[in-house]
Amino acid sequence: MAKYTTYIVSENARAQAEFYTHALGGEIVSVMTHGQLPGAAEKLKDKVVNLSFVAGGIHFMMSDSVFEPVIQGNAINLSFEFATEVEAREAFAKLAEGGKIICPLEPAFWGSLFGQIEDPFGIRWMITTAAPTA
Predict the structure, then answer these.
(1) Cα(66)–Cα(133) distance, rounded to whole angstroms?
(2) Domain that holds residue 16
(3) Phi and psi based region of residue 39 (left: phi greater than 0; alpha: psi -120 to 50; beta: remaining)
(4) Looking at the domain assignment, is residue 69 inside a domain?
(5) Rounded to the nearest 5°, which phi and psi values hold at 48?
(6) CATH of the domain at 13
(7) Which of 14, 48, 80, 117 would be a feasible disulfide site paired with 64, CB 3.0-4.6 Å?
């Protein structure tokens, strides 16, 4: 049995984690920098090796990219399903701050609200509400 954790490589892991904990509620749990490692290069001392945070009740991990540039794409989206319309609209609005709306949060043909955002860090999010029960 595997345990799934979203791991995000970032140009600025601290700022990105702060954005997500503000947008979705939560907290940064721990941060380790290269400066805490033995023999770390001076230019990397403030870069994040490992950052753990909880946002929207979900555990995430992050690090700063130091060996190669971050390349954004559209192949993966983080999908959050909320129990209420109020929660979904609040998260959608906050995640969209400084980013771009790909698909507005509106009723979808399957009966839930659905919207898609690219946040200011280039991460794509799908926000939806729970499907109505029959």
Answers:
(1) 47
(2) 6-64
(3) left
(4) no
(5) -80, 125
(6) 3.30.720.100
(7) 48
Where b means 16+ CB within 10 Å and e means fewer, 9-48 reads bbebbbebbebbbebbebebeebebbeeeeeeeeeeeebb
d(CA 78, CA 67): 24
pLDDT tens, N- to C-terminus, the chain (134 residues): 878 899 999 999 999 999 999 999 999 999 999 999 999 889 999 999 999 999 999 999 999 999 899 998 888 899 999 999 999 999 999 999 999 999 999 999 888 999 999 999 999 999 999 887 76
Total domains in the chain come to 2
| Pairing status of strand 48-55 against strand 58-64 | antiparallel
Residue 27 token pair: 């907290």
